[in-house]
Amino acid sequence: MTRSGQTSEQPSPSAGTPRLHRRPRHGMTMIEILIVLAVIGILLSIGFVTYRRLNQSVTVESAASELSQAIMEARSQALRSGNDFRVIVNDNTSYSVEESTSSGWATRRSIDLSSGITFDAPDAGSSVEFDTRGFANFSPTDLVFRITDGRQSRALVAAMSGNTRVQ
Question: Which of 92, 146, 150, 151 could cross-link to 120 by cystine, CB 3.0-4.6 Å?
Fold first, then answer.
C-alpha cells in the first residue's frame, strides 16, 4: 500500500502472482446498522413491557396503601374526636371516610380509585367502623377489601385494632 492509501500490487511469496492490498475500511455497512437498530428496538420493546407491568403493580399497591391509610385515619379520628368513624365502600371505584353525628353519617373525605383500578370486593355499603375506643366493627364480619386492575389484585385485611395487612 502506498502512503496515499491506494492499493498496490505485491508479489505473493507462494504463488508468484500479485496480491491486491486494500485500504482498511472505516465505518459500518448498511446491514450492520440495520442489525444494531433491530437489537436496540428489541431491547426497547422489552423495557417498555417491563415498565408498564411495574407501573401497573405500583398503581394497585398505591391504591391499597391509600385505603390502608384511610382506615388508620378513621381509627385515629374516632379516638381523638369521641365520635364513631367508618370507611365505607360507595361503589366499585370509590370509598369514603365518614363521621357519626347526631343526624347520621357525615362524609369527611371521599376517595376515588385511580383510573382502571376497582374494588373486586366488597360490595357497596360494606364498611369498617371504629368506635370511640378505637375498636373496629366490620360489615360484613369477614370484610376483605380486594383492589384490582383486572390483571393483578391486592387484598387488604383490617384487624380489630385498626391495623391493616396487604396481601
Answer: 146
Say if CB 128 and CB 159 are below 8 A apart: no
* Residue 3: other Cβ atoms inside 10 A: 5
Residue reference for cell 357519626 = 100
38-71 residue pLDDT tens: 999 999 999 988 887 777 667 888 899 999 999 9
H-run or E-run covering 61? helix 30-81
The amino acid at residue 67 is: L
What is the reported pTM? 0.68
CA atoms of 72 and 56, how far apart (whole Å): 25
116 C-beta neighbours (distance < 10 Å), count: 14
- What domain count does the chain have? 1
Contact 85, 75 (CB under 8 A): yes
